[in-house]
Amino acid sequence: MPTIYIDNKPYEVKAGKNLLETSLSLGFDLPYFCWHPAMGSVGACRQCAIKIFKDEKDANGKIVMSCMEGVKDGLRMSITDTTARAFREQVIEWLMTNHPHDCPVCDEGGSCHLQDMTVMTGHDYRRFEFKKRTYTNQYLGPLIHHEMNRCIQCYRCVRFYRDYAGGDDLNVFGAHHHVYFGREKDGVLQSPFSGNLAEVCPTGVFTDKTLKKHYTRKWDLTTAPSVCHHCSLGCNIIAGERYGQLRCIVNRYNSDVNGYFLCDKGRYGYEFVNSANRITEPLIRTRPVEAVDETTLMNHLKNLITLHPVIGIGSSRASMESNFALMQLVGKENFYQGISDDTAYLEGRMVELLQQGDVHSVSLKEIEAADAVLVLGEDIWNTAPIMALAVRQSVMKTAANQATQQSSLFAWHDAAIKELVQEEKGFLANITILSSPLDAISAIAVHESPDNMARLGFAVAHLLNAGIPAVSGITEKEMLAAKHIANALQHAQRPVIITGSSCCNEALIKAAFNIVQSLHTPERKAGISFVLPECNSTGLALMKAPSFEGALERVITDDNCTAIVLENDLYRHIPAAEADTFFAQCKNLVVMDSLHNRTTEKAHVLIPAATFAEADGTLVNNEGRAQHFYQVFMPVNTHIKESWRWLGEMKTMQAKAANGLQQHPDEWLAKLEVTLPQFANIAKVMPSHHFRINGQAIPREPHRYSGRTAMQANLAVSEPKPLQDDDSPLTYTMEGYTGIPPSSMIPYFWAPGWNSGQAVNKYQQEMGGALRKEDPGICLFANKKEGASPFFKDSPEAFIPRPGKYLLLPQYQLFGSGELSIHSKAISELVPAATIVLSKKDAADLGAANGTLITIEKNDFQYRLPLIIHDELCNGIVLASAGYQGMPAPPWGSWVKLSV
Amino acid sequence: MRQSTLPGGGVKIMLSNLRTMWLVFLHLFHKKETIQYPEEKIKLHPRWRGRIVLTKDPDGGERCVGCYLCAVACPVDCIALQATEDENGRRYPEFFRINFSRCIFCGYCEEACPTYAIQLIPDFEMAEYNRQNLVFEKEDLLINSQGKYPGYNFYKVAGMDAGVKEKGEGDNEEPVVDIKSLLP
Ligand code: SF4
Ligand code: SF4
Ligand code: SF4
Ligand code: SF4
Ligand code: FES
Of B86, B26, B172, which is closest to residue A100 (Cα–Cα)? Predict the structure, then answer.
């Protein structure tokens, strides 16, 4: 470890880092703008100036940019040097000559990096007497607000948008001191990662447009650590509330999962919590006055659950606690997953392979660090966007690493490395049904039917491992692709294979598994990642309960059943006819959910459930990582409770005594661990609700939280007692432990002098690395049996289109396919129209053109959608927009008839 | 107490008392400070920190831009508001509430306000029998005047276009940049 001297004090530091990140890691406050831990240095802003000295005797030294200077053993530098300080202050002063007088009306204010850095350098008075430069703004869509006057030309936005996230519709225009950051013309930003601009931009040029509609300063938000509920990746978020409404989502850094960035669905999909469509009171629909109070509800439920056989339908979007509470209430043998047999089978298969197979389920961080990636069948751009971002980093970083190995450049030297790398890319094979933006950085992009993709996968596996039989009848072209892929994977040290359930095809999973297992050697760490449809699909699959079909049989044979449906709109997962039969057969139907939907309409008893923001809970992400989310706010409406709490109360009622029953999330998890051994260790995901640090709970409100004695004074002038949270170590006050809590319990990032989100610096062990008191979730697949599991030898037959029939497959859209996010107004504006997709030939055969309405038909399923013709789609397949609101669940993966 | 233990202490105390009595006696011939309140009103200085008002700018627009700085500056947290925007993007408070039963009239809110919107005025006559009546909403606070600081219009000096002046039209602003031009 090299030693450097900062203001004459020696420090042992890590080699290969720049002086800025080193100083920050050591806890020094050094201002910066253009450097970003995930994007490296370009030396554009001149804000991070320090002095370095030749040797001890050098009294003059020279000013350098700390972000552009690497650590050298024996290096002497000064942060406090007067000239360096004056330099930094002058840089801010220059930036400020054009900066508008906007802070009071700027949404960045109070979490503004520019404000923080200005205060840090000491600049406080405008001496410049001339006029300010001004720009016009652009309309950038419903997610991001643009206020260009506030720009300080740090270039972070374009570096993130173009280089990091691969977008191409944001750029820098103009010249000299007139540069402009925006689009070529007004219009919606196209990248699904555009929301990160609000956090990446150190000023208020780009801000969250949905927050603007109900604007609250950071210091006034009640916040809690939470986990995104919009896909299976489980990105960590901080959600903020004010006046009983969820106001915004910002990124919560987790070095193993989402790092610094979120996708736009995760950031903006929160508004369903405030939706007018919420279920707000318990209803008993069999009564003349449907709305009832809790006692009446409970008495009614008591009859339903004690006098009838009870079955429970779980949910892949409900927490582990809620699913398990339901299982406890109805009994293990009466608990069913609320998904179709096919889906349950596929998901069960993936979970089983991760549990038993000798394969490693990779984290997003490991995907970023992979040196070859094969995406087999999954459209991750739409189903797991942050994974797509991670794959992009792997491609870019691999090339950069190869380049730096042959030169003396440091990995953080962003601009220089880009020069060196030019168009070189790491290896990515993107094998999907339709093209995605990832194709642009892929070495190979193949667009095929699921069966043929699986065959390609089997061919690759065969090339890697002769023990796996060759694929019969494979074409020369396919073989060429397979060889290319196999070769690249073989030369990689950390290859990753990604697949998922969205093609409804088991062979893909088998092929991916074969490849990973063949690649995995003591020298080579190969990994696999399965993408699942929903935020807790893995958790539900791990419970290994029978699918919905089992429940259907039950109610058909026993017509006296009470069914409890937990946070699940069955019409999204089950063909309408089956769901209708189920509902008709249930003697009593109890539904608990947060939003009204087609299933809640059928309920005899409807119970208002809390959303993620109003609940504690645990989710298991696609990787098998259990992560806890904490309640952000207690709903004012006391009818709204977490499903596990409702179910716990029902259980107490059923058991007639509350002794020994679970009441708090930690107790539910402890019980879960004992009851279902596959969840071993899950209770460690959160501390006991009694946990305190130095006797103090962790406050959800920052110490500057305002308005305490006035917020509710219109209702009653005496302030109410602060809300009590008995479920977790977090509290609803501004008092409590102000130090750094374990990383999974950080309610907000703040440090003295660091009000913006960049305060995360102070929470990290080293910049861009693990957090202090790191606690990144519990990997349920971490400890498993040693020894390879058998290979799959059954590659599927080549896909042959059938005359007059088409294989129906889902097409997921980032905006539109989400059940909850669609209730956010901003997101609903971005949803592409629902369509079906056919190849040119198939469309011609049907005599249809773009826009022609086409009917999909199978048995009693019928649905009509307009057509889009896609050249890449192979013949014999029809894609239909999946998961759209109000659309019945089509028979995915089956052969359907089409008519014009 | 300490003095009385000194020699001659008792005499000193007696002299001091006599002096005090003499001074009090002299006050009989001074001008009276006591006034017949409430018939007679006291004269307060303009900077006296009393009842809080929200003022308007010279154009008659609401001055408060809903920045929350007063609320965060308030040591007793008795200001609560919610910012909203009109169709031009002009920020103003949707509601603005001060709980005067908590206010200590410290004036921090006025000091923090970047727009001169919130001002403490020389009026203290706001006693109430019912404490709830001390909760003032925006309707109770907003006055039709610029208060102590006439002439200031925040949106004229801010960079934003909120329907008050267009980009580049402010006194301190250059015309908007033509990004298609490469001329210096
Ligand atoms: S970007 Fe920061 S410094 Fe500039 S107006 Fe906004 S809050 Fe103020
Ligand atoms: S818009 Fe923001 S991120 Fe982009 S250059 Fe300007 S200040 Fe930097
Ligand atoms: S005068 Fe002081 S106590 Fe009263 S509202 Fe203003 S800041 Fe708060
Ligand atoms: S500080 Fe002034 S402008 Fe800001 S919210 Fe308070 S009164 Fe309004
Ligand atoms: S952070 Fe070093 S020059 Fe910008």
Answer: B172
Per the listing, tokens 């920190």 go with B49
- In sequence order, which residues have a C-beta less than 8 Å from that of residue A67 and are 6 or more positions away? A18, A19, A20, A21, A32, A34, A35, A41, A43, A48, A412
- Tell me the two tokens of residue A791: 């290979």
SS (H, E, C) A654-685: HHCCCCCCCCCHHHHHHHHHHHCHHHCCHHHH
Cβ within 8 Å, pair B82-A243 = yes
Residue among A8, A587, A533 at smallest CA distance from A286: A587
| Cα gap A555→A402, rounded to integer Å | 61
B180:A707 CB<8 A: no
Q: A3: closest CA among A57, A54, A76, A80?
A: A76
Task: Pull the structure tokens for residue B46.
Answer: 């303009």
Q: Please work out whether the CB of residue A99 comes within 6 Å of at least one atom of ligand 1.
A: yes
**CA separation for the pair A889, A121 (Å, rounded):** 59
SS3 B77: coil
B52-157 folds as Alpha-Beta Plaits (3.30.70)
Enter the pTM of the model: 0.94
Task: Check B77 against A708: CB less than 8 A apart.
Answer: yes
The identity of residue B23, as a single letter, is L
Distance A290 CA to ligand 2 centre (A): 54
Show the domains of chain A with their CATH numbers: 3-80 (3.10.20.740), 283-344+540-777 (3.40.50.740), 360-525 (3.40.228.10), 806-899 (2.40.40.20)
CA dist list (Å): B82 to A89, A506, A545: 35, 53, 48
User: How far apart (Å, rounded) are the C-alpha atoms in residues A883 and B93?
Assistant: 39
Ligand 1: distance of its center to the CA of B12 in Å?
66
pLDDT digits (tens, 9 = 90+) for A93-144: 999 999 999 999 999 999 999 999 999 999 999 999 999 999 999 999 999 9
Pairwise CA distance, residues A126 & A301, whole Å: 69
In chain B, domain spans: 52-157
What distance in Å separates residue A30's CA from the closest CA in chain B?
27
Q: How many residues would you count in chain A?
A: 900
In tens, the pLDDT along A811-851 reads 999 999 999 999 999 999 999 999 999 999 999 999 999 99
- Alpha-carbon distance B44 to nearest alpha carbon in chain A (angstroms): 28
Q: How many angstroms separate the CA atoms of A397 and A731, rounded?
A: 41
Sort out which chain B residues have CB atoms less than 8 A from A243's CB and list them: 82
| 8 Å CB contact of B157 and A716 | no
Of A215, A217, A709, the CB nearest to B76: A709
**Least-confidence region, from A102-106, A365-369, A523-527:** A523-527
CB A102 within 8 A of CB A147: yes
